[in-house]
Amino acid sequence: MDHVIKPVEPSALSKKFRSLEGVCWRRVMERRVAERMDELKAANARLLAEIKERQKAEARLREALAEKESLLAEIHHRVKNNLQIVSSLTDMAGRRMRDPEARAVCLDLQAKIHGMGLIHTELYRSGNIGRIDIAAYGRMLFHQLADMYEAGGIRPTFDLEELPLPLDKAVPCGMLLNELLSNVFKHAYPPGEPGRVDIRIGWRSPVRAVISIRDYGRGLPQSMDMARTKTFGLRLIRDTVKRQLCGSLQIDSDGGTAVTVEFGVAGGA
């Protein structure tokens, strides 16, 4: 009865309305926060699902890459073994020949086969099926050829920088080094006499490689026209540099023979 009889103070009504507005506004905010939280939970669930799917896809890619690398490594291993068989057969054939020139041809062929096999050996050993350090390869090739040609008296001086090359450059470089070093062992010095050879493999510039082989032996005949000679070895060197390496070739015969090859390398040092 007091509320009916007594007049209501305006200030009391104002407080009551403010209180009701606050309650309504808080409920609205709580509902909006709850809705937003539900949206965030749903988005988080979608993100987690996408992450899991991406992780599965990455795992599949890693497995496929590992399988591919394993297969390529096995291919290189088998190629190396097959080349060793061919080399052994060539060696057996050469030993049966009485003609010194024919035996020399067999030895030269065997050296080339060994050089190719060494590339595949290095690819298999290093685990990097895409590139090979041609400087390290050059060092091993020298010692391998020195044993084959029984040229232990020829001493090398190495100036080597790490030079990783892709296969399309490494293979022709291997052939080139094989031919240049074989020429030193066969022609630079008389059989059994000591000698030396300077071997430079590295970078001429950040995007250009250099290979230089210099001996201090007999040198080339003065009458030889390097641009027109038809000897197999020099033609092989010219064709390899020009067609496969797209590089430049310089041959000097002053106090021995010096061959310098330069070519570009994609990606550089």
Task: Going across the biggest sheet, name each strand in turn.
Answer: 2-4-5-7-6
Radius of gyration: 38 Å
Q: How would you state the average pLDDT, rounded? A: 82
CATH architecture of the domain at 142-269: 2-Layer Sandwich
Outline the structure in words:
The chain has 269 residues and is α+β, with helices and mostly antiparallel strands. Among the domains are: 2-51; 142-269, Histidine kinase-like ATPase, C-terminal domain (Heat Shock Protein 90), CATH 3.30.565.10. The chain is 62% helix and 17% strand. It is built from six helices and seven strands. The chain has helices at residues 2-5, 10-96, 100-126, 134-148, 167-188, 232-244, and strands at 131-133, 154-160, 164-166, 195-205, 208-215, 248-252, 257-264. The strands form two sheets. Strands 2-4-5-7-6 form a five-stranded mixed beta sheet, with helices on one face. A two-stranded antiparallel sheet has the order 1-3. Strand 6 and strand 7 (257-264) form a beta hairpin. The longest helix is centred in the first third of the chain and has 87 residues, at 10-96. It is elongated and about 110 Å long. The protein starts with a helix and ends in a 5-residue tail after the last strand.
